[in-house]
Structures are given as structure tokens and as C-alpha cells.
Amino acid sequence: MENHHKFSIWYFLIAIWIVLIVHNLIIQMFAVERIPYSEFVKALQNGRVTEVTVTEDRIQGKMKIVEDGRETEKVFSTIRVDPEVSKLLEKYDVTFKGVIETHFLRDLASWLFPVLFFVGIWYLAMRRFAAQQGSFLTLGKKKARVYMEDEIGVTFDDAAGVDEAKEELVEVIEFLKAPKKFTKLGGKLPKGILLVGPPGTGKTLLARAVAGESGVPFFSMSGSEFVELFVGMGAARVRDLFAQAKEKAPCIIFIDELDALGKARGLGITGGHDEREQTLNQLLVEMDGFDPTIGVILMAATNRPEILDPALLRPGRFDRHILVDKPDRKGRVEILKVHLKGIEWDKDLDIETIAGMTPGFVGADLANLVNEAALLAVRHGKDKVGMAEFQEAVERIVAGLEKKNRLINEQERKIVAYHEVGHALVALCLPGTDPVRKISIIPRGVAALGYTLQVPTEDRFLMTRSELENKIAVALGGRAAEEIKFRDISTGAHNDLARATDIARSMVKEYGMSKELGHVYFEKERQKKLYDYDIGLRPPKEYSERTAEVIDREIKKIVDSQYKVAKDILMKHRKVLDEGAALVLKEESIEGERLRKLLEADKKPETSSITKRA
Ligand code: ADP
Ligand code: MG
Ligand code: ZN
After folding, report:
1. Active site residues per annotation
2. Is ligand 1 within 6 A of the CB of residue 203?
3. Does the pTM of the predicted model rise above 0.70?
4. Which SS3 state, helix, strand or coil, does residue 162 take?
5. CB of 570 closer than 8 Å to CB of 484
């Protein structure tokens, strides 16, 4: 809409300009020569003037001249100085006629140009205003500025290294392609999909790719766009956005940076019902009110899910969360390949090596890297991007990221690797623990520097004592591994310790699993209620101080003994610990299966040596 306006005005101005130029050309073609009045009088006296047209203030006519010895005629024009020129003309017997000159064009131009000028200025000012304040020109009917991107041109191939997220989104695409068919078969989809992940991992890209792959309209707005307006406008925009989307179904509504809009309510400094709160409420109302079977999918992205209002995450709202994680080494190779597509690069370029040099880089960093390397190649006067440029570019970007504290150093990576393999190895060795799916040292968020993913194979309702003990041992495996390898421990385990202690406490107090205390249930400390804070009460303990001491001792005993179990396992399989850590350091994330193979390879020679000894 806006673009269209802009172009038509520019076209108009250009057209006027062309007309003026053509006009000038025509005048030049007729080659009217402007001469001084005196020259005209002289020519008159010499009898060279043949024909004259007189207007109010000009005299135009033809006169004979001698040029290169030949006689020709030229058209001349001069300013009428003498008002009595007709007498003079009569005297020299020249045919002359009077003409009333039309000043129409000149007059038109003299008012059209100022008007155009001011319209132009007004228009530019309005555009500025509109850019700042949302679309002023469309303030009346359409309150939301919406980008309708029918032709996205982004496909899944453009987003690499995020295969798990893509897998989950495939279903959404199928639904958008044929919503009727999908729902007829009984398929049910979540209303809201929340893409969660660190900045620059490709959340926005993925949302656009979903639209591109399914070929449906894409209504995209950023969370901050809803709130910078006058009071009440944000809510109106939300309403309008949904109304438009319903008309265009099947389609996608995408709210980027949802946290700007969806911060937990009541956190604002103003406290009361501010603008953002109204907007958020409206969003919740709209989400509850629409029927997903009409084919509208609501997507949002955020890198700070923890500050979102819990109401947004409730079932029926943004209840499906898709993690868009930092890429591992293999993922980085794929992302680099995507971004190298548009670039001339040396065939000796080793993408694997570049991926190895860039742990912690996200998609946006890698895109930046390729760009930087290409610029360096130009500066070096090369026609292809080579390894040297990438090396230099990596150094530059790493320096920048380190300043922003986004990279962990080599020693930290090593500690994290041993820590995570420690967890995994203990889990593999103990019966009744959940299988290890994945071991990763790709940092996520602020708290966790790495993770070991254990996925239960079945739902459990009962757990035995030994299973609980094993769980504690697994939680402590990380710290034990650090101690074995580095003879020092780090702060990276405090979550693990909390978990281990929690389980141990439950064993003692709730499940009656401690020898000393026997089969007695000690009520868990009640969660503090608002009421308790108000009157300053501590929740009452239902057992004596002495018992409390015993409980504490028993908890410590369980935790300590399980720490020893974990440490013994790791000492016994020290070789696997080292191999596993090296592997994780190299590849950043490995399947649990690979560690299991290492472990089996380690066990076999051992059993054979035992049989030999026996
Ligand atoms: P986010 O929304 O997660 O902050 P974006 O989607 O805006 O990140 O990503 C910014 C840019 O970084 C993209 O336009 C793309 O060029 C690049 N990029 C990010 N992630 C990927 C990826 N997984 N594959 C390819 N390019 C990526
Ligand atoms: Mg984004
Ligand atoms: Zn841990």
C-alpha cells in the first residue's frame, strides 16, 4: 500500500521532468536565436527582416542572413523594448501580425510546482511519522500493521543444524497444507507453538520457513510493536491481527520476541493496568476465542521463556514448546554450507575445520562469519574466499563474542565434558536408571553449561530404594568425574547436589527408607503460604530437634555413600571416562549409544583377564 503511493508520486515527478526536457529540445530544434533589440532594429533598417510576429512583450520573426557566403534565413526572437514598434515596422514595410500570447503553461507551472513541492514535503513528513507511530495513513480502518508475506522464499533448506525443531514443525506444515483433511482424520494440533532458544539460532528463520514450505500467508509482528503505541492501540492491533488472519486462513500468525509483550503481569514499575498488560490480556482472549481447526496457526519466538507470563503457557495457549538449540559441530557444518552457497570459495576450504574452530557460534554468528570472510577476501584482493580469511574472521568474531561473555573457554569446556560424561557413565553402569540419550556440552541458557539427556522408557509409579539410590549416584557422577580428573571441583554441580539431596531427603522423611529412623513418615516441610509471611510464622515442625539432627545425618549418609558409588564406577572405567570426554570435546554432542559402546569395549578385556586369572 504505502509503497504504491510512494512510487506513483515519484513517477509523476519524473514524468514532468521528462516533459520539460522534451520541450526544451523542441525549442532548440527550431533554433530560435535570441538577439538584442538593437540588432533587430539594425536588421530592419538593412531590410533583412522578412516576417514578424509581435506579442505583448516579445517580437519573433525571420530575417535573412549571409552565412559562409550563402544567404539563409534564421528565426529570431527579441524582447520588445519600444512600445511603438508597429510604426517602425510600417516604415520598413515588413509584414507583421500581432498575437496574444497564451501564458497557460507558464501559469500552470507557476502554481503547480509550489503545490507539488509542499505536497512532497508533507508526504515525506507523514512517512516519517508513520514509520515511527505505526501506519498513520491507515489509522482509520486497519489498526495493525501487518506484513503479509505470500511469497516468503524461505524454505527448510535455509535453516540448517536444527533438525529436531524441523521434525516437530513438519506436522504443522502438513496441517497448513490441508487443514480440512488433517482434522477429518482426527488430527489435533496445538493452538500455539513457541519457539524457544538463544538469540540467533534461527527461530525467526524457522517460522518463516514454515510459512514458505506450506505456502500460506504469514502475518508477522514483533512483540515490541504492540506496545509502543498509544494506550489502547496495542489491544486493538491484536484484535485486528486475529480478525485479518481469520479471513486469510489457512495462515500463520507469528509474534516475534514474545517476551516484549508477554512479560509476567504485575512486574511493571507502574504496577497498575498499563498498556502492555491490556495488550497481553487481549492476546489471551483472542487465543482462547479462536478455533484452530479453521487453519490458523499461532507461532511465537522468545529467547527468554522464563519471564513469560504463565498464563501464556497454559494448555490451549502456547502449550507446544520447540527448542531451537545452539548447533553442534555437525550442525555448524551444515549452516556454513547454507551460507557459503552464495559465495565463491576456494575448493581447499575445509568446512569441518572451520566448524571445529567455532564452538558456541549460533547460526547468526556463522552467517556473520561467512560475510566477514568474504569481505576480507575482497580486501586482500582475492577472487575466492580461502582458509586464511576464515581464520582471521573467526579470530575477530571470537574476540567480539568473548567480550559479550557468550563463549566458554577451553578449560571450562574440558571440565564440562568430564562432568557430563561422568553423569552418563554412572547412569550406564547402574541398573534401573533411565537410558542416556544424549551427552552435550553445548551451553544452554545461563545456568546449564552442558547436559546429559536421560529419557525414561516407561512411566513409573513405584520406585525401589536401590533405584532412588542409583538416581542420586547419577546426579553426583558429574562432580565425581571432575574430582577424579582435575583433583578439584567446580561450581557447575550445584543443581546436581540439590537434586541428589532432595531425593535423599524424601527417602528419609517420606518413604521411611533410613535404617536409623525406620519406617516413619515425617511430614515434608509445608510450603510457606502467603498467610505465614503475613503473620511471620514459621511452619511448625512435627518432630523434635533431635530427630531433625538424625534426619540430617541420614541424608548426608545416603548422599556420601552414593558419591562413593559414583566415584568407584568412574575410577574403574577411567579409560572410558577419558575417551568419552575426548569424544564429547571433539563433537560437542554425542549419542548415548556411543558411550555405551566404549564402555562395552572396556568391559570385555576386563572379563577375559579375570577369567585368565581365575
Ligand atoms: P533468532 O530469531 O533465533 O534470533 P534469526 O532467525 O533472526 O535468529 O537468525 C538470524 C540470521 O542468522 C538468519 O537470517 C540466518 O541468516 C542466520 N541463521 C540463524 N540460524 C540459522 C540456521 N539454523 N541455519 C542457517 N542460517 C541461520
Ligand atoms: Mg528473531
Ligand atoms: Zn551435572
Report:
1. 420
2. yes
3. no
4. coil
5. yes
What's at 120, amino acid-wise?
G
Residues contacting 288, CB < 8 A, separation 6+: 316, 317
The winner for highest mean pLDDT among 59-63, 230-234, 397-401, 562-566 is 562-566
CA 503/CA 536 separation, integer angstroms: 29
Distance between CA atoms of residues 351 and 366, nearest Å: 12
Cell for 360? Answer: 558456541
In 3D space, the residue among 488, 163, 180 whose CA is nearest the CA of residue 334 turns out to be: 163
Q: Which amino acid is at 33?
A: E
Q: What distance in angstroms lies between residue 301's CA and the mean position of ligand 2's atoms? A: 7
Locate cell 553442534: which residue? Answer: 328
Ligand 1 atom closest to 364 (CA) = 12
In this predicted model, what pLDDT tens digit does every residue of 24-60 receive, in sequence order?
A: 777 666 667 888 888 888 888 888 888 888 877 788 8
Assign 22 to helix, strand or coil: helix
The maximal CA–CA distance of the chain, rounded, in angstroms, is 148
Distance 201 CA to ligand 2 centre (A): 8
Euclidean distance between CA atoms 547 and 542, whole angstroms: 10
* Cis amide linkage into residue 431, ω under 30° from 0: no
Tell me the β-bridge partners of 586: none
Atom of ligand 1 nearest to the CA of 197: 3
